[in-house]
Design goal:
Elements (H helix, E strand, L loop, with lengths): L1 H5 L18 H17 L6 H7 L4 H5 L5 H24 L5 H13 L13 H11 L9 H6 L4 H17 L6 H21 L12 H13 L1
Helix pairs in contact: 2-3, 2-7, 5-6, 5-7, 5-9, 6-9, 6-11, 9-10, 10-11
């Protein structure tokens, strides 16, 4: 199993990058330190020049992999959701009960992220903070429709569709499975943000997790 996981590659749409960062040591360093730097200074302050200084490489070498910092952010968000999808599929495939599958799926999408040693160049905890704080910038752009047609967000949409189908597997008559699935996925990020920054307007805290909230919300809605 360890050998199997060590060969696992998270698939991201090749339309997002110019050269696959997984194909070289430099590409992996761009991703690794890109995550750490965005987490440290924020996406708005992040530049390829700063990243180049961090990895002792020319700024132009980064542009051989990604044509803009926006494309890097789209890559990171796509990688994150593909990683979450992998965990969801792996954890639910052998569960016999549909409600248990749904509860496990919600937990995986909404829980606090822990470091995954399978991917040594990815700090998933730092990446999760980026997803919470910055991921909306990957699609709240004037080019979102064109980028959607290019398949930039297909992993994210596929994950939401999986959860939507799980909801229907529990209650085939529920009218709003996709709306609820996307609410769970995006709402979890928002609740984690509120828990960390606007504590007075959420009930999630050290005792009540976003996972508990969304499991109860979902099951009450579809029963």
């Amino acid at each position: 199993m360890i050998n199997l996981l060590s060969n696992l590659k998270i698939a991201v749409s090749e339309n997002i990058y110019l050269k696959d960062p997984e194909s070289s040591d430099l590409g992996k360093r761009i991703v690794e330190y890109g995550i750490l730097l965005i987490d440290e200074i924020g996406f708005d302050s992040f530049t390829f020049k700063k990243l180049g200084a961090k990895i002792d490489s020319n700024e132009s070498s980064i542009y051989r992999y990604f044509e803009s910092k926006h494309k890097l952010l789209v890559y990171l968000t796509s990688w994150y959701w593909a990683w979450i999808e992998y965990q969801l599929v792996f954890a639910t495939q052998n569960l016999p009960d549909e409600e248990q599958k749904l509860k496990k799926a919600i937990d995986i999408v909404t829980r606090v992220v822990k470091q995954d040693s399978t991917f040594s160049h990815i700090n998933e905890v730092a990446l999760n903070r980026i997803i919470i704080n910055e991921s909306s910038k990957s699609y709240l752009t004037t080019d979102v429709d064109a980028e959607n047609k290019e398949g930039y967000f297909k992993v994210y949409k596929r994950l939401v569709s999986r959860i939507s189908q799980m909801i229907l597997n529990v209650n085939p008559d529920f009218k709003y499975p996709s709306s609820l699935a996307s609410t769970i996925t995006e709402g979890a990020l928002h609740q984690h943000f509120l828990k960390d920054h606007f504590k007075s307007i959420t009930d999630c805290n050290d005792s009540v997790s976003p996972s508990e909230f969304f499991v109860e919300l979902t099951l009450n809605a579809i029963r």
